[in-house]
Amino acid sequence: MKNYFVAKSRRIRSTPYTSRIEKQGASAYTVYNHMLLPAAFGSLEDSYHHLKKHVQIWDVAAERQVEISGKDSAKLVQLMTCRDLSKSKIGRCYYCPIIDDKAGLINDPVILKLDNQRWWISIADSDVILFAKGLAIGNKFDVKIFEPNVDILAVQGPKSFQLMEKIFGRKIVEMKFFGFDYFEFGGAKHLIAKSGWSKQGGYEIYVEHTESGLALYDKFFELGNELNVKPGCPNLIERIESALLSYGNDMDNNDNPLECGLDKYVNLDTDINFLGKEKLKEIKKKGVTRKLMGVKIETKEINITKSIKILDEKNNEIGELRSGAYSPHFDKVIGIAMLHKPYWNNSQTFKIELNGKRFDGKVCDLPFI
Ligand code: THG
Question: On the chain, which terminus has fewer CB atoms closer than 10 Å, C or N?
């Protein structure tokens, strides 16, 4: 497949780390929240193996924050998500589907409760800030909504704990998953969470003090030498194996959280108020008619730029493939697909046409591993 350059401009924002990652061999970008997000440092497969064994530093500044503060901030944040945040705690992160009045997904951010009247919504790729402002204006909420200068650096991989302990001490290792706290480096305080878009363990540093963040970036490579630290980025293979969903790829505004297996983050039985609650109750009562599932395909190469039809023996469309990659673990292509009822059973077989050739596939549960 021929590759094309991304024409950079002010609209497609660089990050404070861009010049560093380009020196270090970033070889592909995607655009996320109108910002550059590295998509590869050479071979995806090499990076996958490295991520599962060692430690990587990721420029994920494109995971932008929408800050909501003020008297009605808790009301607004709750209005946007079907996850019950009434018992949420300061110092914790919450993975939350944001939905509209029709229960269509708007985004699937991590929400950080900074204070009782101050939240960060760490967004996937859609303009949540406009949705939030619209709701605040329509409801005459007393809130302030803006995008703060926060540029996340992620430290991911099994050796991330050792690397972070070298700089921040034992306390950082003892932090709970999806907890966050503040840590000092080079005279600046950084919010650090135990989180990240891989299942290999690690941290996310919400850098507000750019100078100190850049010094920290360099420190990771200075101290990480013996841990085989490398620059990296969210890895397509690892994230599919781990079933970390990607908004815009695996699901979008035409899908609801129950179709996407996000049931765990849908709370319909408490008295909280959120958009789409009645609609979701209705959908739950009727039962969904399609579902995101895993698929395995008997081929070793795939390149997805749009959804691809999944067919039964008689060529009837039974669903669509939305993401896919060659998995070294399964030695075949694996992917995430939206499948119609009743074709979503584990072991359902199917056919799929890729580049003019037909391949056999099988449905499976998520996550793969
Ligand atoms: N970190 C931060 N912001 C983000 C992402 C991130 N914003 C965009 C995007 N990623 C949002 N999507 C996800 C999807 C999954 C998870 C985090 C963000 C995730 N899920 C865990 C899981 O599925 O096991 C845990 C969820 C839980 O149980 O609460 O981590 O990566 N800052």
Answer: N
Pocket of ligand 1 (CB under 6 A): 63, 95, 108-110, 122-124, 152, 178, 195-197, 204, 244-245
Q: What is the pLDDT of residues 127-182, one digit of tens each?
A: 999 999 999 999 999 999 999 999 999 999 999 999 999 999 999 999 999 999 99
> Does pLDDT of 117 surpass 90?
yes
Q: Could you state, in order of their start, the residue ranges of all structural domains in the chain?
A: 18-63+150-240, 65-125+256-288, 289-369
Please check whether residue 154 is in contact with residue 145, taking contact to mean a CB–CB distance below 8 angstroms: no
| CATH T-level fold of 65-125+256-288 | Alpha-Beta Plaits (3.30.70)
pTM higher than 0.85? yes
Pocket test for ligand 1, best of 244, 249, 262 (most atoms within 8 A of CB): 244
Q: Buried b / exposed e across 115-149, counting CB within 10 Å, b at 16+?
A: eebbbbbbbbbbebbebbbebbeeeebebebeeee
Indicate the fold that domain 18-63+150-240 takes in CATH: Gyrase A; domain 2 (3.30.1360)
**pLDDT tens-digit map of 196-226:** 999 999 999 999 999 999 999 999 999 999 9
Instruction: Classify domain 289-369 by CATH number.
Output: 2.40.30.110
